[in-house]
TrEMBL record:
SUPFAM superfamilies: Thioredoxin-like (SSF52833). It comes from the Bacteria. Belongs to the thioredoxin family. DsbA subfamily. It comes from Streptomyces flavovirens. Residues 30-238 form the Thioredoxin domain. This is DsbA family protein. InterPro entries: Thioredoxin-like_fold, Thioredoxin-like_sf, Thioredoxin_domain. Keywords: Disulfide bond, Oxidoreductase, Redox-active center, Signal. Coiled coil: none annotated.
Length: 254
């Protein structure tokens, strides 16, 4: 497939507001060792105390989009808790979370309306990461993002790489109906821009490694045990105020 023109990446925090910048500085995206995106780390956080002590930052909670048309999200738009995940398809610990933890969160919290999960593409491992991110967005345009996500994070999938033929095979496995459209969408400026927006948001809050999470503004670093996410989600649900009357499921919710 044609290679889209690369968009320059911003590695400086974006100004989401003074409070967000201060929060990012305070948490340093929690317990990560500071690792520049050029030499990303897949090492999960050493422990959980740091992220639990980091607390909730309301300005970071506002990064939740709650957009019913968001094809890279699952769960009700009026769910009391939103988990934002910043991840890379070449990240081994992102795959561990996707296989071992996320399905349980979906079953326990998404299906009962408590939790919404919003994906942010955060490719930090080079060209194949960026290609996989654009391909995931393209699959989403045909309502198959989560199926592509599952295929790309299957055990052993990342070892096969994310070249052009492999991405097309993953799209086929995910049930993407129009593979020619998928190829065009993957190479499109729209895909490049969508990935860049997610990537810049991650840099803007100080994220340097994957996976990184926000749960109603509370940062959680790395593929932590299920219990860490359970505690954070239940605490956020207990504290949450009602969110309007949107009541719509995002397209692609399964």
């Amino acid at each position: 497939m044609p290679t889209p023109t690369a968009r320059p990446k911003s590695r400086k925090p974006l100004v989401f507001g003074t409070v967000v910048v201060l929060a990012a500085g305070l948490l340093g995206f929690v317990s990560y060792r500071a690792t520049a995106p050029d030499t990303p780390s897949t090492t999960p956080a050493v422990g959980t105390a740091a992220e639990e002590d980091a607390g909730v930052h309301p300005e970071l909670a506002k990064l939740a989009r709650r957009d019913a048309a968001d094809k890279l999200a699952r769960g009700r738009t009026d769910a009391p808790v939103v988990l934002i995940e910043y991840a890379d398809f070449k990240c081994g610990y992102c795959g561990k979370f996707a296989r071992d933890t996320e399905p349980e969160l979906v079953e326990k919290y998404v299906e009962d309306g408590t939790l919404r999960i919003e994906w942010r593409n955060f490719p930090i491992f080079g060209k194949e990461s960026e290609a996989a991110a654009r391909a995931s967005w393209a699959a989403g345009q045909q309502g198959r993002f989560w199926e592509f996500h599952r295929a790309a994070y299957a055990d052993g999938a990342k070892e096969k790489g994310f070249g052009e033929d492999r991405l097309r095979a993953l799209a086929r496995e995910a049930g993407v109906e129009d593979l020619d459209r998928f190829t065009r969408d993957t190479a499109s400026a729209a895909a490049t821009d969508a990935v860049a927006r997610d990537q810049e948001q991650a840099y803007g809050i100080g994220a340097t490694s994957t996976p990184s999470f926000l749960i109603n503004g509370r940062p959680v670093a790395g593929a932590q045990p299920l219990s860490v996410f359970t505690r954070a989600i239940e605490a956020a649900a207990a504290d949450a105020a009602p969110v309007g009357n949107a009541g719509e499921d995002a397209e692609g919710t399964r």
